[in-house]
Amino acid sequence: MQPHGFLLTLDAAALVIAQASANAPAGARAGVGLDAVFPALVAVVRRYLDHPSTEDGAHYLRTVTLDVDDVPQTYEVAAHRADGLVVLELEEITGLDVEAGLDAHTPRLRAFVQRLRQAHSVEELCNIVAEDIRHITGFDRVLVYRFDRDWHGTVLAEDGNGVLPSYLDLRFPASDIPVQARELYRRNRLRIIPDATYEPVPIRPTLTPAGKPLDLGQSVLRSVSPVHVEYMRNMGTGASMSVSILVGDALWGLVSCHNRDPHRVPLQARNACDFLTQIFALQLFAQERGAQAEQRLALSSVQSRLLGFMAEEDSFIDGLLKHPHDVLALANAAGAAIVTEERCRLIGETPSEEQVRLLHDWLSAQTDEAEVFSTEALSENLPEAGAFADKASGLLAISVSKKYASYIFWFRPEVVRTVKWGGNPIKPVAEPDRLHPRKSFEIWKEEVKGRALPWTVPEVEAARDLRTSVIGIVLRRAEELAAMSEELQRSNKELEAFSYSVSHDLRAPFRHIVGYSNLLKTREGQHLSEKGRHYVDTIIEAAFSAGTLVDNLLAFSQMGRHTLNRVAGDMNALVEEERRKAMRDIPAERTVRWEIGPLGRAHADPFMLRLVIENLFSNALKYSRDRTESVIEFGRLPPKDGEAVFFVRDNGVGFDMAYVDKLFGVFQRLHRVEDFEGTGIGLANVRRIVERHGGHTWAEGKLGEGATFFFTLPLRGEDI
Prior knowledge:
The chain is about 40% helix and about 25% strand. It is α+β, with helices and mostly antiparallel strands. The protein has five domains: about 5-90, PAS domain (Beta-Lactamase), CATH 3.30.450.20; about 100-195 and about 235-290, Beta-Lactamase (2-Layer Sandwich); about 315-415 and about 450-480, PHY domain (Beta-Lactamase); about 500-560; about 565-720, Heat Shock Protein 90, CATH 3.30.565.10. The strands form six sheets. The protein has a six-stranded antiparallel sheet, sandwiched between helices. A six-stranded antiparallel sheet has the order 8-7-6-12-11-9. It has a five-stranded antiparallel sheet with strand order 14-13-17-16-15, sandwiched between helices. The longest helix is centred in the middle third of the chain and has 46 residues, at about 265-310. Residues about 430-440 have low confidence and may be disordered. In the N-terminal section; belongs to the phytochrome family. It catalyses: ATP + protein L-histidine = ADP + protein N-phospho-L-histidine.
């Protein structure tokens, strides 16, 4: 451990010292009670144990004065738990350090929060945090360092006094901070090295009572890797401090502080820096989320227009080709292509048709082909793409049909830029078997090619949503072309109802409702009355409830695309499994009598057949819940026309046979939603599944006396 303080580990129950650092005051050794050496610490530790923190890491307890060799000395005390022990860390402070406590920084922190609110960019936020942390700590130089997707770090902001050289805008390779070091930064937000020339202090005994070395991962005094100390010396710094910037639970970057000479920052000042950095991270997260929300709203407007254009045309491709500006605007791309096995249509700045065909064939051949593919460095995935990097270094692709290998591509051109590294990132080391720190920090320039501007999350989401809409339209058009029978015509109407509701009545309006309501709540909430905020919350809740209906609609649509996997199985076993599942949500006080006859075997897709049984049981339980005793029967009738005939009968409210034709239609309900909840999709799913198996459905009922639902499945010899 580092020598700018001393460490004790304690048994939590008896407060007996288990280990002590070699620089601890005389008398502080293993086996001695804390009250015998430092009685003033006992109440402090007890209070910590009685009110444990919910956060990881060392926590400042208080400043105490201890008698050390009959001389009063003041210490800042921090504690955390490790290996079943209480780890106490004490740093001696001077009178000036006491004056620089957390209260002394309160006005600065308040001003910092106000400045953050007024910042309009990430760079401005970073400049503010660099300036304030240098003011609090007194370091010669403070950097704000952000990691990219490859864990290279770029200095976005810097504040210094000119003693150390400027690193602003320099990039440092990922190898400077290895994976294990980044994980430590994520787990322990703050680390300080007051003197890079320190001699490590041992802990005695070296092993805990459990027989293993003490875990110092959360310690403020823990030593650092000799490689890191050598790195500091090569950088010309005698002291350093780092504060991790965590956005969510991910390591976004670091606040890195350096001093030419040894320099110690009091614990409370360090805690102020940690607090300040956490506020900065929250503001950073809010700003990034706000920017994404605005972009989502803008892209949803483009998507709604494209959806209308596609719906008006006989082919969705015509709807896209006639409105090229909106196609490009959906992903903020310079070019796009619509590629099928037969044709390749190009929009804007794109590679040649032959090169686009190369991309089409490459994506089609991927065994792990995703519905949406995106990259900002296409040539890293497909080296041949380097030949057209000026048109397509960035690729965003959606798969419209995997069966026929159809895609929509968006392209972004290469953005050639010069990156300034803090030393040569690929300079070889003298001894390959040993990890070496960087020795040179002279600016080393590299021209980066083959990369485009990265695709944002809202842009990828907009492409994914367009894919869903296109697939819905393609399915509708396919059924329209194949509408040669009454069955196909009815299926076509169901698909049209689905496409219209999701595309026009639900998806776009709900996006606007939720998006603008959230913006109103976050940006104008402080100006609204309590009743106004309640109204906004009610709008958001209602929009999300409607999303449940969308989910059911999507499930209905997907039934038609699910590949049937027919196997022969025991119907009684399947029905019993679904019966048990259905009863899980039934109140214990409700009486349900099940009458399940011999059902034999059936040849069907078990997953889809379960959905049929689940929907029929759910309806029977729902519509008979007002009966003193619900009676639900599942039976099998004699075969008819080569089909097995099954039925589910209940003694519920029944229905008027005059409306029987509406039962299996989408959104068709024979009872008020106030009386019986539901979306009107369940029986439509039953019919679609049964018909995909080659069977058919019908129902019989009488008001007040119950209903019976029949379905058939084609027979095979072993099913009888």
